[in-house]
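It is worth pausing here to work through a concrete case rather than discussing structure prediction in the abstract. The textbook approach is simple: state the sequence, then state the predicted structure, then interpret. We follow exactly that order.
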Amino acid sequence: GVDVAHAIVLGAKLAGIARPLLQALREGGEQAAESYLDRVERELSTVMLLTGSRTVRDLEKAPRFVHGELKEWLTLAA
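Step two, the predicted structure:
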């Protein structure tokens, strides 16, 4: 969920979660897959709450705090 939120804030329109979802399904069955999806939803909802984003479109406009290696890379790319 947090990774999905990061992707949205950075401009993504989609976030792929098929592989970890299928891994959860394979390792723990349907209940594990549902638990994984519940966790993704909770994490995304938490990020949206903390950023004051009522919708995904609001999240797209949320302030960005870029630091570390990504900040260095963006500085070099500009």
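Step three, interpretation. The radius of gyration is 15 Å. The chain has four helices and no strands.
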